[in-house]
Amino acid sequence: MMAAPLTELEAVNSMLAATGQAPVNSFSGTISDQNIARGHLANVVREVCSHGFSFNTDENYVLTPDFEGVIAVPAGAMSVNPMDPRQNLVQRLHPTRETMCLWDKANLTWTISEPVKVRIRWSYSYDALPELARVYATVKAGRLFLADFVGDAQRERFAQEDEQRAWINLRRDQTAISDINIFNTAHIGRKLIRGRRVWGSE
Length: 202
What we know:
The chain is of the alpha+beta class. It contains four helices and five strands. The strands form two sheets. Strands 1-5-2 form a three-stranded antiparallel β-sheet, with no helix packed on it. Strands 3-4 form a two-stranded antiparallel sheet. Strand 3 (89-93) and strand 4 (100-104) form a beta hairpin.
């Protein structure tokens, strides 16, 4: 039987257990230590997503202007960068829509006439992360939570070592996925080139 991924509640309970506190059955806004632990976890999840791993980054993602030529930044996007380096587009708060949209810095306008291909980095919740990212977030948030309650240098050192191992495992996994994706892209590209050469030679 395969193990289920670590849940946010299980992560918070592991953090509480590290300081000798009893686990909780559900989240409650009235339990301060639980909220502190959950806050640390949410901060580390945002930090993990900000690195732009394979699991939360899409390339050549197409954003299309609306009927006024404005491109709204999708909800949950941490960063949006054009794939074409000649396009000088940045995220800004639209003055009338009160949402983040793409601003054309080169032409000083909100109006963009054509769809734009971008590299987009998504912000995910804890439960939307792959398992190794969840483990790292739990370990680091646990260390930060532990430091709030226990002034023990020896335990802090062990927690830092656990965090480093979890980070290495996550980076190794994501590097392997990226290498596979690069290989597949290059392999497909070579097949397309060969196909064009064969077709052109006929």
